Amino acid sequence: MKKSKEAVADIGLIGLAVMGENLVLNMVDKGFTVAVYNRTTAKVDGFTHGRGWGKSIIGTHSLDELVTALARPRKVMVMVRAGEAVDALIDQLVPLLDEGDVIIDGGNSYFEHTARRVERAKREGLLYVGTGVSGGEEGALKGPSIMPGGSSAAWGIIKPIFESIAAKAQDGMPCCRWIGPGGAGHFVKMVHNGIEYGDMQLICETYHLMKEMLQFSADEMHEVFKRWNEGDLKSYLVEITRDILSVKDEDGEPLLHRILDVAGQKGTGKWAVNCALDLGTPLTLIGESVFARYLASAKDERMRASRILAGPPVRFDGKRDAFVGDLERALYASKVVSYAQGFALLMAASENYGWELKYDEIALIWRNGCIIRSVFLDGIAAAFQRDQTLSNLLLDPFFREKIAAAQSSWRRVLAVAVTNGIPAPALGNALSYYDGVRSARLPANLLQAQRDYFGAHTYERIDRPRGEFFHTDWTGTGGGSTSSCYSL
C-alpha cells in the first residue's frame, strides 16, 4: 500500500464489497493506482492490509480524502447498492468535485435513474457514467464485460482504464464499448440480465427433462453438458452447469439434488419485462422465466398441490440418446429466441429514446467476461453487420437455417414434455413465439371484433387501407358512437 500523501491515484472507487474489491485488484494489476473508500472504514483497512497489501492502492477514511488523492480530471467509481444510496453518495460528492470530473455508477441501477443523474451532473458541470459490469466476482477480478453510457465526453477520460480491465475476446478486442447517452449503458446491462434469466431457465428445463423423464444420474447429465459445451451450445452457463453436476456432497451424493428448489432474483429481469410492456415489445420467454422463479418460490403451495392435483404418469419409451439430441437442438433454438427477444427490446428502446445503439458491437462485447457469453454471439454480431436494418434475429439467414434444422426436435421435446406433464414453460414459450412470428395471420381479428362488440373500440379491414377504422352495431341496438382509438 502506498501511504505517501503525495501519491496520486488514477481513479477512486467507493464500495468495497465483492465486486468493488475485485475491480480494484483488476485495475492495479493493469498498472493503475486506485484510491479506495468504504463507509465502514474498517473495511478499507482490512482490504489494504489484506488482499491489497503491497499494491498501488491508497486507502482513505473520508470522501474528502479520497477526492484529494485523485489526479484530474477526477474519476470516482461508485459500487454501492442501487437506489437511494447512489443519490445520497452523489449529494456528498458533488461539493467536493470540480468541473469536468467524472462520477461512474458501476452498480445495477435502473436506467431512468441513470438518465436523471446524467442531467443532474450536467447542471453541476460534472460528467456522469452509468455502466453495466457483468461477470460476477471472477469477471470483476480477471476481466468483465463493461457497458458504459451517459455523458459522452467522459468516454475519452475513462476509456484507457475500462478497456484495460475489460475481458478480451478471442480476437483480442476488449469487451467494452461506449453504448450511448443517458441511461443506455444500464439499459443494455438490464437486457443482458433478462437474456440471462431466459438462458438459465432454458438450461434448467433441459436438466429437469433429463432427470425426470430419462432418469439420468448427475454423472450422466454432467457428460451431456460437457459434450454440449464443445459444440454450438458452448457458453459460460452450460459450462458451469456441467461443473455443478459433478460436485458431490460429503457422503458422495450429488450436491445439486440437495439444494432446495426455491429461486431468488434481484429484480433486473422484472425491470426488463416491465420495460418491454412499456415499449410494446413481446419479451415473452424472458417474462416466462421471471414468472418461473416466482412459481418456484411458492414451495409450500406446490408441495400441497402435488398431493392433490392429478397428472399423467411419466413414461418414456423412446431412445434416450436420440431424445438428448432433440434436447440439444431444442435448447439451441430456444436460446436464439431469447437473444432475438432481447435485441428486439434494445431496438425498441433505441428508437424510443434516440440512442442509436450499435447491435453488432453489443453482441461483440458480450463474447467474453459476462454471464451470457456464448459461442454464437459472433453469429449475432455477423447478422447485424450483414443487415443493419434487421428487425428480428430470427429473420437472419444463418439463424433461420439453424432453427429450421432444429424445428422437428424442438416440437418433439415439447410434445413429450406435455404428454408426460413435465413443465417446460420457457422452451414452450420460445416455440410459441417462433410460431407467432412466422404466422401471417393471427386470431387478433376476433379479438378486435370482441373489443368492438363490447366497447365500440373499432377495427381495421383487410380490404381497406391501413389507418381506416370501422365500427359495427353487432346487436342492432347500439349507437353510432365509438371509443377513442389508441395503441401502446
List keywords for this structure.
globular; 488 residues; alpha/beta; disordered N terminus
Describe the structure.
51% of the residues lie in helices and 7% in strands. The chain contains 19 helices and seven strands. The longest helix is centred in the last third of the chain and has 34 residues, at 320-353. The chain starts with 10 loop residues before the first strand and ends in a 33-residue tail after the last helix. By secondary structure, it is α/β, with parallel strands linked by helices. Strand 1 (11-14), helix 1 and strand 2 (34-37) form a beta-alpha-beta unit.
User: Helix-strand pattern, N to C?
Assistant: EHEHEHEHEHEHEHHHHHHHHHHHHH
What does the radius of gyration come to?
A: 26 Å
What average pLDDT do the residues reach?
Answer: 94
Strand arrangement across the biggest beta sheet: 3-2-1-4-5-6-7
Strand content: 5-15%
Tell me the number of helical segments per DSSP (H or I, 4 or more residues long): 19
| First and last CA, distance | 56 Å
Structural class: alpha/beta
Topology, number of strands: 7
Could you estimate the helical fraction of the residues in percent?
40-55%
Inertia-based shape:
globular
In a nutshell, what does this entry contain?
This protein has 488 residues and is an alpha/beta fold. It has helices spanning 18-29, 41-48, 63-68, 84-93, 111-123, 136-142, 155-165, 184-212, 218-228, 236-244, 268-279, 284-297, 299-306, 320-353, 359-365, 377-386, 397-420, 425-437, 444-455; strands spanning 11-14, 34-37, 57-59, 75-78, 102-105, 127-134, 145-150.
